[in-house]
Design brief:
Blueprint lengths: L2 H26 L8 H10 L6 H12 L2 H9 L7 H23 L7 H7 L2 H35 L6 E2 L2 E2 H51 L30 H11 L2 H7 L5 H17 L1 H16 L7 H9 L2 H39 L5 H19 L9 H25 E2 L3 H21 L4 H22 L6 E2 L5
Antiparallel strand pairs: 1-2, 3-4
Length: about 500
């Protein structure tokens, strides 16, 4: 048997096994006999409220740990990017302690439903949902499809026979395969299938990811000598990707936004039978994030720098994995990476359809839609748009940095609306919407023209949005914003 045949065989077997185990678990789940719109929403988008803490932790971990993390962060070939993971622990704790109890208190299906209930206005819920959707469709879906496809091509040395829209044909074909499979999970299984497959795949990916770390270290005899000091430091200077002072400004709020308000992530913790069960899952995800993930997303890239020197266009991870893993394991690792891509893609698809169906369609088009049919239509539409945007990421020198920079347009303005509604009473929703729109424009100007790091620009944008929201509410709309009473 040739090595290629063995790799492909193992890849197909493991991929099919995960799908089969997911099917068995979902088939055994007790489903509601209530087929009202509310019940369908809860089943499709919140797994019927039946996710135990294990599946919450596994799904949160693998939804985030996709190729934009593995390929993009290792592609930087430096220790400094581990700060994204260390800071994420704080974001997860904020989710568990602050945001999650509020989501359960207000019985939210989407994170944006909290905005409607706190501001008393459906329009702000729809505005924020549209911004989330723009980020999912225009940034995350194409980035994940490109990153996963790029890894497969690099790891297996797949040659392309042609160029399609400026991208190697092999990358486009693999991206199409990822998109179709991810959409199938999201359409036919809803969040239940997404979360269960995440948990099973997470065990595989974390195990093999640590195996790659060990084998990479073994390849250099655990000797980091010869690697430039700036690639082994956690204290970034002003010219680095993460200057040390950005950790004191925008970094924390980026994490609060991503882990506590982002439907794609938070949805899993909102799908448990109780808030306590959801919190246990979030804490478990935080422990994984602190103890395991940093090594997986930086050490192989650093080792690749010693072995090969600087590798451009995020090719470091695929090359080091292809070199250090034995043939019999490379097929399994390909399956793990495929699972990471699929679970991230189908998670974003499920979250996006939840936002559209619950926040826009049911509020403005029809209060009694066919949820499952609408889910399928929106999923297919998003997949097609995401695939069309894949070529735009081929020119990026760093996937992860491109994502963070672009998402700054949306993240801090959105977070301002959540923080204001949690901390203050009697704020007019129109003021919050004005502040959000202002924030999008302000960040764009700061990013383009201000001589400061984009993470600082995010912090300035957030503070400006909060101040503007409170000021406009008081002086234009005549309300009297005040701090939320303790215990309310």
């Amino acid at each position: 048997m040739s090595s290629t045949t063995l790799q492909v065989g193992i890849f197909i077997f493991i991929t099919a096994l995960i799908a089969f185990l997911t099917y068995l678990k979902c088939r055994a789940a007790i489903r509601s006999t209530d087929h009202s719109v509310a019940a369908d929403n809860k089943e499709v988008f919140l797994a019927g409220g039946g996710l135990t803490w294990i599946f919450v932790a596994g799904s949160i971990t693998l939804t985030n740990l996709s190729t934009d993390q593995l390929v993009g962060m290792n592609g930087n070939q430096m220790l400094l990017v581990a700060w994204w993971e260390f800071a994420a622990v704080i974001g997860l704790i904020v989710l568990a302690k602050v945001f999650l109890p509020v989501y359960y208190k207000y019985e939210c299906t989407t994170t944006t439903e909290l905005l409607e209930k706190r501001y008393g206005d459906k329009h702000i819920r729809a505005v924020i949902s549209v911004l989330f959707l723009l980020g999912n469709v225009g940034i995350f879906i194409p980035a994940m499809l490109y990153g996963g496809s790029k890894f497969m091509v690099t790891m297996f040395g797949i040659e392309s026979t042609s160029i399609i829209f400026g991208v190697e044909s092999s990358i486009i074909y693999i991206a199409i395969g990822f998109a179709i499979t991810g959409a199938a999970y999201a359409v036919f299984g809803g969040l239940r299938a997404v979360a269960v497959s995440d948990a099973y795949s997470g065990v595989l990916l974390l195990t093999l990811g640590m195996a790659v770390v060990f084998l990479a270290l073994k390849a250099i005899n655990f000797d980091f000598s010869g690697i430039p000091a700036e690639r082994l430091t956690l204290i970034g200077d002003n010219a680095s990707a993460i200057p040390w002072h950005t950790l004191l400004t925008g970094m924390l709020f980026i994490q609060v936004f991503y882990w506590s308000t982002n439907q794609t992530i938070t949805q899993r913790a909102m799908a448990s039978p109780t808030v306590q069960e959801g919190q246990k899952g979030v804490y478990a995800a935080a422990i994984i994030r602190l103890l395991i993930v940093p090594a997986i997303i930086v050490i192989p890239g650093i080792v690749s720098y010693k072995l090969y020197g600087r590798i451009e266009n995020d090719g470091a991870y695929g090359r080091i994995v292809g070199d250090v893993l034995p043939v019999w394991l490379s097929g399994a690792f390909a399956a793990a990476i495929a699972a990471a891509v699929l679970t991230s893609v189908n998670s974003i698809l499920n979250a996006s359809t939840a936002l559209y169906v619950c926040d826009i369609h049911e509020k403005y088009a029809s209060t009694e839609p066919n949820v499952r049919k609408l889910n399928a239509i929106i999923t297919i539409t998003i997949v097609l748009i995401g695939l069309a945007l894949v070529p735009s990421y081929a020119k990026s020198s760093s996937i992860i940095e491109t994502i963070q920079q672009m998402y700054g347009l949306l993240s801090m303005p959105i977070l301002s609306a959540f923080l204001v509604c949690l901390v203050f009473d009697d704020v007019d929703s129109r003021a919050a919407i004005i502040a959000v729109v202002f924030g999008v424009v302000l960040y764009g100007i700061l990013f383009r023209f201000a001589p400061i790091h984009y993470i600082h620009s995010m912090f300035v944008t957030l503070i400006s949005c909060v101040v503007l929201s409170l000021s406009v509410s008081r002086f234009v709309f005549g309300t009297s914003p005040s701090l939320v009473a303790r215990g309310s």
